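User: what does the whole thing look like in 3D?
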Amino acid sequence: METDAALRGLSALAQEGRLAVFRLLVKAGPDGMAAGDIARRTKTAANTMSAQLLVLANAGLVRARRDGRSIIYVADFGRMGALLEFLTKDCCGGRPEICAPMLACPAKKPRKARAA
Amino acid sequence: METDAALRGLSALAQEGRLAVFRLLVKAGPDGMAAGDIARRTKTAANTMSAQLLVLANAGLVRARRDGRSIIYVADFGRMGALLEFLTKDCCGGRPEICAPMLACPAKKPRKARAA
DNA sequence: TCTATATTTCAATAATCTATGAAATATGGA
DNA sequence: TCCATATTTCATAGATTATTGAAATATAGA
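Assistant: Here's the predicted 3D structure for the full assembly of 232 residues, as structure tokens:
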């Protein structure tokens, strides 16, 4: 990931409402959520939510698809992974002092994965 | 790490100049760098740099200490690690799809560490 | 003490971001 | 076609952030 894309990702997540939306979409998983449901769930006006989702989409952190009258938003895990990779490698030079706390990540031991 | 601290960390890094400064300080390591050296190296006015460093310091990502006439800034690796931990665990729920790309982090295999 | 260096603080401007009402677009169903 | 629902787009006002010149503070050394 290039610096410019990383900056857009960081900026997108660097706001309370958008961070909450992204976390919600991560929890929702691959099925995603309709824009209206997200707005209701976070008690946000529809047009405000639309703007927030647009920023996340422009950063590549979520993707949108239409389903009938609704537009479903889905977190882009690959992109988020790339952002984290940028932060650990490109930004932090892979220094163990920084990376160490992340070893608790389940991806480390995919064999024993339990239901989260 | 709490959401509020994570937001401050994300905001601090979500700007070209500050991200560059933080990367520079990570590379500089525990010895850190004087504010003036950072400003010269990044071709930034001293007062602008001072403001950027203040934002990073308020986010806890760098620490400052005086050394004679200079003020030395040092990246806080622990804090950056905590931010990454927040993003992987609290924010992303430790989903392997997101964490996977980070397995290349050297901390995973400290035994064979080579000079970077 | 006086001067030079290093950095910060202050005040003001410029730029960017966020939220909102109102209107527009797209879809599905009667 | 007409209407209701779902979402976005537009214009704008308010808030926040970034940069800069000028002044202030802190330190070191003559």
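In plain terms: Residues 34-36, 39, 46-47, 49-51, 54, 66, 68-71 of chain A lie near DNA strand D (CB under 10 Å from a C1'). The longest strand of chain A covers residues 62-67.
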